Amino acid sequence: MLKNLSQSKTAVKIVLGGVLLLICGAMVITLAPTSPLGTVGSPDAVATIGGENITAIDVQQEFSQQTRGQNVPPVLQGIYMRQVLDQMVFKRILAMEADRLGIQVTNDEITQRIKQILPTAFIGDTWIGADRYAQEVEMRTGMSVPQFEDYVRTALLTEKFKDLVTDGITVSPEELQERYRWLNEKVQLVYAEIKASDLESTINPTDTELSAYFAKNQSKYQVPERRSALYALLDLNQLKQSIKISDADIQSYYQQHIADYKVENRVHVEHISFNTLGKTDAEVALAKQQAQKIDDQAKHGGNFEDLAKKYSEDTNTKAKGGDLGWIVSGQTAPAFEKAAFSLPKGGVSDVVQTPYSFDIIKVVDREDAHTKALSEVQDSIVQTLTQEKVNDEETTISDKMAAAIRQSNHQPIDAIAKEFNLGTGETPLVDLTGSVGDLGDSQDLKEALFSLHQGELSQPISIDRGYVIITVDKVVAAHQGTLAEVHDRVLADYRQEKAQDIALQKAAELAKRVKAGEPLDKVAKSLGLTVKTTDSITRTSQVADLGPAKNLESAFNMSVGQSSDPVQVAGNWVVFQLKAKQDVNSEDFAKAKADLEQQILTDKQNIAFEAFHDALMKRYQDEGKLVFNQANLKVLTSPASS
Q1: Which residues 6+ apart lie within 8 Å of 93 measured at CB?
Q2: SS3 helix, strand, coil % of the chain, rounded to 5?
């Protein structure tokens, strides 16, 4: 019996994984060929599957395709590269398994799926032709035709394996009841929170106590090498203020770029999107049902932007409250465009189905076609022309500065500053982790500061404020810090550590006295604490001040009036008492039963297929048919430099 699935996915995965390992093992015995195993052939290979290589370039190209238009932080690129590699590996393994098992995806199946997800490729049952088809694929999916059809083939093949693996998985009545109870059982708590941070300011150690703490933890307080610099700065703001733009220049620019100021009929829209591309019919039906619920909220007082941030699956607009900006005719799917251009300003659409999503659309603003007058765009023209002149000036001056330093990088920095009319200054002592005073946090600047010898000038370094030339002024070598040097750090650490001790002691005393029968509110008051009461909460609720209710999981297994031991929540200590408990309603359960059964079934199927995925990958590695080049893999998955 799979009980309380939402808390037991790991256990379920282990159980199903064991079963599927046996299945995969059986495949080895009955289906595995006797040909020699593949080996890593290419020195550029990151992985080799059955003798076929996947190189770092292959992975990077696929990564670029999947993340087009998205700004992936450099520190996360290595993680995503590994995910893309695993997808590519599993895709090839699945194709090999399909050959062995005789599982095929027919051309007719591919055609039927394309009709579902890209109906604009057909007029009735007639294909629109190669050229128009390629245009539709590129516009709607951002893929080439081979990439798109390979995506469809892989999705269909994956579905066939998923059906094979998950056939026979069912949901028992007990599972339904347990999941519903887990999701809907409610409790109400009274609690007191002991915040260590509130106690820190009350802790004032003597010099003797602080010295003793420092002596005990002295190794923690190393002082890294620090350097300061003298600098000469080409300040772009000052350069910009010195530039004047004439009326004639403005008029000339306007006439030359008049086409840029022609505005088509356009609408400024926001949307909430639910993806359907590549999903099964059941998953599409669930997405539509979810979209209709959110559409109802958006039309009856719900904040559209907040709903988009919470529910939209468009990663490019989700964080912006679904803001797509201005759109014109031909820029979006026909159904999306028709709905957007038919809505009044402020209007919210019904659920709109496109070939790849369900969308809810809100029109923020509308504009009829016209040409903007010079007065409307004059400020932007001035900004553009000013920036162009600033760019020209800064390039010219920085090139001359670089040339002068190449002739001699040991001349006085004041001489360079005077020659090019640069501002001068001095930075504070900094280490490699800190900002370089008013010059900011440029990594290039810090690297130059810590690589220059005293007396040398750097080349011009681009920073937010402009271009800067530096020379090392003072150097303080790395050393074991004295208490005087690191006093503030030591004091902060001492207070934090002692505050935690005192907070725990208070929480332990509170819990002990309440368990002995004293009223929580009276004990809390005697300890200088405030008692609060939660709303009725479920296990998935967010509790004001305390965060996710999962931090208070033990409350759901308590009796009314029972109190807890101290529980640490987000660095603080909490003692709570169960005030009320609300069991689930059988009538509500009956209404939710169908949707909940589908959710549980989908969860179990996903877990089963994930276990199958892991077992299959392991089998190929154990047999030597899947080999990773660890050196190349390490390079590929290392965080990118910012």
Answers
A1: 49, 616, 617, 620, 626
A2: 55, 20, 30
CA 520, 525, 527, 529 torsion: positive or negative?
positive
- Lowest-confidence region among 73-77, 359-363, 387-391, 453-457: 73-77
Cβ within 8 Å of residue 192, ≥6 positions away: 510, 520, 524, 527, 529, 530, 531, 532, 574, 575, 576
This model's pTM is above 0.90: no
Both tokens of 237, joined, read: 């703001």
In this structure, the chain runs to a length of 642
Q: Residues 402, 459: contact at Cβ < 8 Å?
A: yes
Amino acid at site 41: G
**First vs last Cα of the chain: how many Å apart?**
49
- pLDDT, one tens digit per residue, over 404-445 is 999 999 999 999 999 999 999 999 999 998 899 999 999 999
Q: What is the 3-state secondary structure (H, E, C) of 608-632?
A: HHHHHHHHHHHHHHHHCCEEECHHH
> What per-residue string of b and e applies to 98-120 under the rule 16 or more CB within 10 Å gives b?
beeeeeebeeebbeebbeebbeb
CB 642, CB 74: distance < 8 Å: yes
Q: Please state, in angstroms and rounded to a whole number, the distance separating the CA atoms of residues 230 and 473.
A: 6
Alpha carbons 134 and 127: distance in angstroms, whole number:
12
Which domains, and CATH codes, for the chain?
Answer: 5-170+595-637 (1.10.4030), 186-218+486-582 (3.10.50), 225-246+375-477 (3.10.50), 265-368 (3.10.50.40)
Lookup result for tokens 């469809």: 152
**Contact criterion met (CB below 8 Å) for 2 and 604:** yes
